[in-house]
Batch of 2 targets.
Target 1
Amino acid sequence: MTDAQAIAQRYIDLWNERDGARRADILAATWSSDARYTDPLATASGHADISKLIGGVQQRFPKFSFALIGKADGFGDHVRFSWALGPKGADAPIKGTDFAFVEGGKFKSVTGFLDQVPQAA
Amino acid sequence: MTDAQAIAQRYIDLWNERDGARRADILAATWSSDARYTDPLATASGHADISKLIGGVQQRFPKFSFALIGKADGFGDHVRFSWALGPKGADAPIKGTDFAFVEGGKFKSVTGFLDQVPQAA
């Protein structure tokens, strides 16, 4: 796999897409229909559930967007990359690292870990 | 999963075990019989193959051992941790981060990434 960076960017673009219909298109094009996503806060299976989960995160952080941190790394069908979630142009309060298994060019499963979360107020 | 650190340490102990029979015992106790391991350099399936792969790495680096870096992190059946491979008491030239899926308390699959490798001489 030579395009770990492109795969990771495609993933970030999905998480930043606020139009549900366009998210569905991206999911259809780049995620397996039985794809699974899991992180410490949520789990989702299939395009509809994953889109709903992303929409929920966007509603919770209406002024935040996702961006890649550093370079994505990949080999075979495996990709890892780190991301930040925060307001544009400011230091991001939330950071994480995701691990993706890609099959036939489509995301099959993604496991997300949190690297930084805001301290409770 | 509250014992990510213990799971990660069990994994490191396996990689440091130089006795093949003891490795087989550890694998039987802590890895699924159909467990899979993959990293950018090698892939192995099942206890015998995984033990052989570990033995090969040990032969290649006879004076090196593995150690955990920092704290392991986990949720649900997922664990991630970083490790160093190097001579005892000296800075380790090789570092990586592994992601494990654990089922019923046993390693089911491990995907390893390399964070630092020595530059070619």
Target 2
Amino acid sequence: MELYKRMKFNNKNIQIGKNVKIGKNVKIGDNTIIYDNVIIEDNTIICNDCVIGEPLADYYTNEKYQNPILKIGSNSLIRSHNIIYAGCELGDFLQTGHYVTIREFTKCGHHCSFGTHSDIQGHCTIGNYCRFHSYVNIGQKSIIGSFVFIYPFVVLTNDPTPPSDDLIGSFIDDYTQIAAGSVILPGTKIGKFCLVGANSTVGGSFIDDTFIYGSPAKAVGKLSKMPFFNSKNKKHYPWPYNFERGMPWQGIGYDNWIKSNKNI
Amino acid sequence: MELYKRMKFNNKNIQIGKNVKIGKNVKIGDNTIIYDNVIIEDNTIICNDCVIGEPLADYYTNEKYQNPILKIGSNSLIRSHNIIYAGCELGDFLQTGHYVTIREFTKCGHHCSFGTHSDIQGHCTIGNYCRFHSYVNIGQKSIIGSFVFIYPFVVLTNDPTPPSDDLIGSFIDDYTQIAAGSVILPGTKIGKFCLVGANSTVGGSFIDDTFIYGSPAKAVGKLSKMPFFNSKNKKHYPWPYNFERGMPWQGIGYDNWIKSNKNI
Amino acid sequence: MELYKRMKFNNKNIQIGKNVKIGKNVKIGDNTIIYDNVIIEDNTIICNDCVIGEPLADYYTNEKYQNPILKIGSNSLIRSHNIIYAGCELGDFLQTGHYVTIREFTKCGHHCSFGTHSDIQGHCTIGNYCRFHSYVNIGQKSIIGSFVFIYPFVVLTNDPTPPSDDLIGSFIDDYTQIAAGSVILPGTKIGKFCLVGANSTVGGSFIDDTFIYGSPAKAVGKLSKMPFFNSKNKKHYPWPYNFERGMPWQGIGYDNWIKSNKNI
């Protein structure tokens, strides 16, 4: 698939630092600044008013500061007013909304999307095909699997005794969904194929296929047994049997995709 | 009333697309970009660093993409760093804070205001005289009446079985207030003159004049009977008898305004 | 300590109003706009795409509008895409994240930091050494002591009967911590050395050293007696005995600092 064949940006007021590698067919929006040591791979678009390769705090105080390498994968679409720090490694087919910040040493896989006003605090690891909606705040040391969708105003916290330097990230396993307004407490472990209900306050550990809800949140039951029916009057979970837009099993079905892909 | 007589913007680094219609006495801030097919009506101010008529996703892939018409009404004030998508129809006397996104096919009436960091997700309908404070997130398919005030960190969600494409918007009727931090679940229906208490998780249907509170939220009672007294030691609800700043009944009283206006 | 010796900003597309006083060794990022009557003290850095001294609403309607003085203290670091209104008085060593708004007549002491996407609504008072993380929303009329840390998606509200003009701010005393997702109701008073647990809804008054939690929040007990142990297996509260990074007692211990500083 060849994305983004056409752009009408004007190449006005763009500034590009040293040792910046820009792939084929990359487009850069007006007023965007790209700092040193940035790699942007083929077919990627950076829209207007972005800061790419934002230097770390040390930049302002250390004469010998060198910007760590930032790599943005191919076929990505970075919308306007994003700030992406140096030191990140972001996979192919990344999509972002507006006013997104991605702090230093964030590592994410391919086909992720980060919604408008999201703030990825850095020093965290995110798998493939994750979708974060608007206003998602991922604390440092978080580890997130693949196919994890997180909805607005969710925060993954990391300090069990604030303030401290004893940061403990959470671990959210593959296919899990975290509904809007939930707070994930430091060190929380959530298994695969879980759903966290809206506005929950979640601590502790939860096994696969759990519906988690409340403040403080409890394991309400096996998610696949809960009466969550979709518009086809079918039990919706596990959701990959019922949702495929943009997923790698689109058109072939989840079971067939699983058979042909031991590793994603 | 003639607003905005004086501006000291410098007309620097402004870019304007094709087929843009700009009314009389419109001012445009520095570094602002206006894409194709935008209509800005008389006396409106667009501040610095805005993107107006932001193209839809199709723009990046479709050679024949045409930007849908964006109309911004007269006497509006769009503050800096806003992103307003193509395809919206926004009424007169709109006011926005900073870093606001208004996605495609948002339709709002006149005298609305959207606070700083708000994210209107598009494909939604908003009446007149609505005020959204900072960090308000309106999901697609939401329908909101007139005189609805929404406070910080409120989200109107729309996916009952995430992730799915079965989006169901909420309906919030006239004069209803939604206090800070509340999550409105998909398909919620809230009548006129209701108040949703802070940090609630609201699903289901609620009749007019209900005080709604809790997680999950319940109908606590008739709002007009609840002991919510204002600084004049008067029952505050229904609030139009006790608040008039910027409302069309300012100076004449709500009853007189109602008598003279069958339709707002 | 001499901060920020080196910068590589390009002085491109910067605009500066009348009567702007810029101290020694100040650096200003590209595309930044500084309005009239701004004072920036020595060694301060303003990054790219900021609006400094943003005029009040009256600017757009009043021919004789004069921008109130904005003062930004020395040795501060204002990151990119900030909007700081006229009329604020901000102490030395301020640090901000990105997309921060600080509205008119905010007064803050020295060594404060305001995280990415924070929105300080103005007409409020903040002490010294306060740290607000991402997405902190401080309502007008709030009064916040020193060493107060506030975590993501916390809002300090101010309207007990929305909508009204009877705004009542909250008072948060020194050393208190407010965890993520909490809503502080109008007129709340929280003493010194308290901790508000995550996702709480807090109203009323709380004495010093209280652990406050729930929706509605209750005083769970004396914070210093609660079993909150840190990684050294030590009771963490009162926290100044266990956290010193960036605090004035760093290297000397809290007790020694208290002895030598009757006033902070």
